[in-house]
Each structure stands twice: as C-alpha cells, then as structure tokens.
Amino acid sequence: MIEKTPFGKTGNGQQIDCFRLSNSRGMSVDVLNLGCVIQSIIVPDRHGTPIDVVMGYDTVQEYESDDAYLGALIGRWANRISGAEFELDGRKYPLAANDGVNHLHGGPGGFHRHVWRSEPESGRVIFSRTAPDGEEGYPGNLEVRATYALTDDNELILTYEAVCDLDTIVNLTNHSYFNLSGEGDMLTHELTLAADYFSEVDEALIPTGKLLPVAGGPFDFRRTKAIGRDIDAKDPQLVKGKGYDHNFVLNRERGGLPFAMAASPATGLTLSIDTTLPGVQFYSGNALSHRRGKGGRLIGPCSGFCLETQLFPDSINQDSDSRPILKKGQNYYQTTVYKFTA
Ligand code: BGC
To answer: How far, in Å, CA of 149 to CA of 40, rounded?
Structure first.
C-alpha cells in the first residue's frame, strides 16, 4: 500500500510530500521527495509494539538545515574525495571542499538537498531527477532513478539506476541512522559484518590505499559482538575516526548470508542488510551533535549507526587499475536490501 500526504514546504515554496509504504505485517516506511529521505521505518518488535528504528525530523525546515544527512540519499559521490578534485579523461574536475580540504557526500548542494520527481506505485515509489552537467562540479547530465519498495517479508529494497551523457563518477547510498531500540544509544546492539578487511584512513578520514585485516582487533565483527565492546580501544584507526567511521571490504563469498546483521537486545529487532556493492561505511554516529529529532527524541553521539553501502571512498584518486568510472551511456545499477525481523 502507498499513501501520499503533504509534509510541508521548502524555504522557496516547493511542496514536499511524504509517501507511506505499508505492508500486511504492520511495517511502514515514510519517505520524502526532499533528498529521497527515509523519514521513518516502523516495525513491530517481539511484543508487537511499533518501534521507529531510524532517526529523523518532523519538519521540512529541519531537513533543509540538517548537517548530518539523516536518512538521505547521498550523491553524486557518497563519502570523501581527497583534495576536492579528481581527474577524468585528461581533465581536472574541482569540487566543493566541504570537509576541510576534501569533498564529502556530493557537496553542499548534493542530491540530499534536491526535490525529486516522484511516482508512487503499488508497494513502491520511484524518485528521479536529472543532475545537470557541472552540478557541484561533476561532469555530465546524469539521469538518476531511485526506487524504494517494501515487501510483505519486511524488506525495504532500495534500487539505484543512473546513466550519463559524459564519462562521470557515481556512488549512491542511503544515510539512515538506525537504532533498533527506538531510542537511547545503540552501543549495546550486537553487530555482525562479513568483512575480513577495512580501509586504513589518515587524520582526515581519507583512505591511505592500504587495506588492514580486521583479524583479532576492534574492527573484527565477523563474530557477533556489541558495537560498544571495543569502540574505546586505544587503536590508532579508532582514534582517527573517534569511533567507527571506516569502509569495510565486504567478503565476496558470504554463503548466501547478508553482509550485516544488527540486533537490539531491548526490542529483539534484527536488521539484516545485503547489497550488490563491494563496501560499506560503518559509521557509529560519532560526530552527531546533540539535537532533538522526531517527537522531541534526543539525538547525540552514538544514538544511531549508519551502514552506508558504497564503492570504495576516494577510489577515483586511489587506484589506477580500477577507477570507478561510469562511462558515457553505461548503466549504473545497484541495490541494497534492508530486512527486519522480530
Ligand atoms: C561519514 C562521517 C561524517 C558523516 C556526516 C558519514 O557518512 O563517514 O565521517 O561525519 O557522514 O554526517
């Protein structure tokens, strides 16, 4: 089922709508045509009590001034690009330096700031927009489609498609902060990640190009452990991230299992995630400053975690053998599935 209701107006008078996807199991997902934001995900817990498992706001104005990308679709390139510049087909493309000297999450006018076209259909909504040549510095007119679908198996399926009239780079993700307890910090959540390696970063969180093994250290989530168990370890990488804020390299062989599972001991809710993408930024919400979200709910450091499926950060500047170029006319297609069980 899908239901459309007005959510508010942007500062320049554009209408923002909320699309509620709901299924036969009592799960519902509210999405906005502003930044394709996932505003809420409500799932019944082990007692049947509805829990809202993502962070968000009640008003358009709060989304317009948000600095933490709550629930938003990130593009044209999610995560960081070093020196806010890359080279492609012999040309340099300067981008906004909005994270020190580096570029983050598509720039200040990235995809999260735009009002998207929307087409609700039964059980899904299709968002689309044309990102013009030169928008935030990126080359080519990019036609983008993001389809958000909810199944009766409590799966939220996000599918991203794009095609460009010039060679370009594209890396789309969703920046939801999950808290399967509904509120409080999420350090007691149990997490499993099918990743043998993660990307080492420098002080500015730019990958050094080296992959470090997780084995035996605080980054080892191959066996389930609480997110908070090792988060304060005196590990140089954790110190740089002020917690977890790293790209994990997803094991290709996962025996048919999702790459991530997170569970709240308080509600019994479990989130499993799978994806066609090779990496995930596991961000433990370290830099979230204190604020109020939906219904006055307190948001602060570690009140939610992000698992941002992605191509590897800064790969356009890193590895000359596998630069992530979307060739002119080529189709970008990626999908990520979030499944909830109680
Ligand atoms: C990044 C963090 C950044 C945050 C901004 C995350 O995706 O990895 O470093 O602070 O987004 O909200």
So the answer is: 14
